[in-house]
Amino acid sequence: MREFLLGLRLLFGSGRGNRVRFLLMTLGGSLGVCCLALVLTIPAILDAHDGRAAAREPELLRGNRSGQPTLVLERSDAHGSKMFGRVFLATGTTDTPKPPPGLSRLPEPGEVYVSPALHDQLRREPGLKGLLPGKEKGLIGPAGLTDPNELYAYIGTTRDHIGAEGRALKSFGSPYPPTTAVEPSTLDILRFTLATLVLLPLGVFLSVCAKLSAASRNRRLAALRLLGVSAKGTQRVNAAETVVAALLGALLGLGEFALLNRIMSSTGLPGLKWYPGDGALSGNTIAICLLGCPALAWFVGRMSARAAATDPLSTRRSAAPRAPRVWTILVLVAGLGLVIGYSSTGLTAHPAQSQGIHAVLVVAGALLTGLGLVLTLPLLSYALAKRLARSGNLALNLAMRRNEVEPGSAMRVVTGLVLLVFSASLAQGVLVELSQVSRNTAPAQQYSLSLDRLTQEQQRRLRGIPGVEASAVVMDDVNADSDIASALIATCAEVAKMVQESKGCVDGKAMRLVNVDGAPVSASETSYVVRKDGKRTTFRVPGPKDTVLYVSSTVTGLGGDILIPPSALPTGATPMGAYLVLSSSSDSSTVRSVLDRIGAIAPTSEVDLQGVNVEALQQITVIETLLFLGMVMGLVIGVAAFLVSVTDRAVERRAQVTALALIGARPRTLRAVQCLQVVLPLTIGLVLALVCGKLAESAYLVTGGGAVFWDGAGVPPLLAATVGVLAIAIVGTLPLVGRRIDPELIRRD
């Protein structure tokens, strides 16, 4: 305890520089703990979502049943790019179940309970009320909703109206949710990516904060050791500062996270919104932050103080520094060996798959490569400094001599930025893989809407939706025996937009549509039903003799049909039983945008989608949001580690800069020295991170089983990020040389 109290007295009574260092350690630790708490809370948010979905899942009666049990009927439809869930309930006379979570009682016939988001949606889109027969009686509580943005409703009805599709309801609640916010296999990938994006840089950042001003601290500890303090006592003195700073930083970081959770839960993220209680700090998270971070600080402080405690004379300025150990490069070699091995299988006929032990080895290869980058930077900095220190340039000579004496300082300054580039490459690989798994493999996405529920104005607006590349009306032949199943009402210009290539189309004529890869259809007469002046009438089309050849239809309803020009329809006639077909690109962001606009224009119309799952779109949005959040946290941690390190260097090297200024070094030369000390090791580290990151990304893509093995499109953004990191580093080193020269710094030192 005496050594601990002595450490605190030295901390607060040894000058402004030490207090500034303590403040940096505390603030840096708080930022790291806030990011750590956010990463640890993400699974809890997803589990809370799935838990509420499971708690409201209807459990049905099995086997024979007597009396009149309560009947339930579930409907889940797409409203834009969101799912719209409706549960119809017909209360029975026997074994009436308890109400679902979020309701105080079961709805009576004609009563509707809606989620707050659906309540707001009904104000904007009154047409949705057609899907909710009854009068709104109240809102569903948070316990019955997966998130605040969910569109959900409980509708009370009668047994006659619920029909034969109704099922006998036993109770609400299931051990497993019907759908999860993120698929379990995808969640494992997400955990690995977030660990690489956040936790690995976070560990380095917290270590950097614990080793601030290592040189001056070691000299102070060596002095205590020479005054008679034991080796263990000296280490406890050092632990007083690092542990107290880490503990205060952890408390401050938990407070920052609590405030951030309140703000983010109220605003939400794209595709992801949660209740404040979902992101509340759990006991495990608090324990990890309050115990783990001080433990890490104690371990790092103990390791950094070992030399001063065991051999205090080695901290003299004249003592020769120990060169970095060569064995540290073995970790990088092991990681690169794994990722290169798996990447090379992509060049063979049988690429490796991430199954069994291979899944573990691919992850281990990526993590070992990232850790190897951290451990190899001091060795690379030392080797580079030793080679360039012999140059005739004064600024380069001074810079490299300093890096040769303190090779570990390069790791503290540039590691966070190097890991940022490495992690960004891995995140790109995950996004590429998820895009391959989730995207529609067809060149276009089709949306079909029944014309019976669309007005002329709605049809016009739907055709003009941004992103819709083609549109047409398809109607079926009333004669079931006809060889021609349907007709396409479109002009030749519209047909040209729907296909890659067409030949022989003539406007104003009915023609047969023949795919070059398909068999030609017969030329028999066809009949269609249209509505004119409120009456049904039959519209006959003679068998067309002319043919339109086309290649690769983007609208699936086009194949094997007859083409009818719009002018051939009777004036004022509207096809019955027809549907409007829209086509856009299959890009997930375009599909989401088109679905949202369709929902706004025709909220009660059912959209028939082919090749896309709205629930899958929602999951992809959540995953992309979490990955983006991870990249933002990685960027914050990397930049924070750099800023904390360069600020510490500015305080730590004031005496050295003053000495050089007093013997005649110009400010321009001193700035060049400080810049070269950081930029040259950082450049080497960034190039290595870029290469290693792309290799790790390729190993992940090859074993993922997708069609893309080599992400060439991701190289330009990474190069731009690398240049941006270098620019940040250059700007960050400029304030290291002050304008005021204080000789007292040399005497005091």
Protein model, in words:
The chain is α+β, with helices and mostly antiparallel strands. The chain contains 20 helices and 19 strands. It has helices at residues 2-13, 16-55, 116-124, 159-162, 184-210, 214-226, 231-267, 283-310, 329-344, 357-388, 394-405, 408-438, 456-463, 492-498, 588-601, 614-652, 654-662, 667-704, 715-733, 744-748; strands spanning 58-60, 71-79, 82-90, 111-114, 135-139, 151-156, 167-172, 444-450, 468-476, 486-489, 499-503, 511-515, 526-532, 535-541, 547-553, 562-564, 574-575, 579-585, 607-610. The strands form 3 sheets. The chain has a 9-stranded mixed sheet with strand order 11-15-12-16-10-9-18-8-19, sandwiched between helices. Strand 4, helix 3 (116-124) and strand 5 form a beta-alpha-beta unit. The longest helix has 40 residues, at 16-55. It is elongated. The mean pLDDT is 77.
| Unreliable stretches covering 5 or more consecutive residues | none
Content-based structural category = alpha+beta
User: Mean pLDDT score, rounded?
Assistant: 77
As a whole number of angstroms, the C-alpha radius of gyration is 34 Å
**CA distance, first residue to last residue:** 29 Å
Strand ordering within the main sheet: 11-15-12-16-10-9-18-8-19
Oligomer: single chain
What sort of overall outline do the alpha carbons produce when their principal axes are compared? elongated
Total helix count?
20
User: Helical proportion?
Assistant: 40-55%
The biggest beta sheet reads: 9 strands, mixed
Would you report the number of β strands?
19
Strand content: 5-15%
